[in-house]
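New to this. Please check this record:
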Amino acid sequence: MGLVYAEIEIVRGADLVLVEEGIITPEKIRKMVVKAMVDSGAYMLALNENIRLQLDLRKVGEQYAELADGSRVRLDIVGPVEVKFENRRANVDAMVLPGNSEVLLGAIPMEDMDVLIDPLRQKLIVNPENPYIVKKPLK
């Protein structure tokens, strides 16, 4: 299987709260669409420093992570972040990778959104068999 990429929307979760409380208008929500590598071997959402700065994401902690080259680094954790893909969304924290590193969509947000990797088409898809997603209004 080759590399799988997906366009996801990243939303500053704190802005969603500010809208809910009437402090800012929905037009002021900071968000962006990014191309993310779908990485089921990673467990979190991983953003880069540039995205963190653009969305003004707040540090909520630190964590050690093992990079693809085997090195262990201490990374900032930021949040809350809302991730959207098609008709799905998840609220997660994200690791911050240095510089302009590639965005990674890990297993936790994928599971929370109930999305799957389709290896034949090499793309991310929503789970077509999820019985809990309401497609038609209940009668």
In short: DSSP finds three helices and nine strands in the chain. Strands lie at 5-12, 31-38, 45-48, 59-66, 72-85, 88-97, 103-105, 115-118, 123-126. The helical segments are 13-20, 49-55, 107-113. The chain has one domain: 5-126.
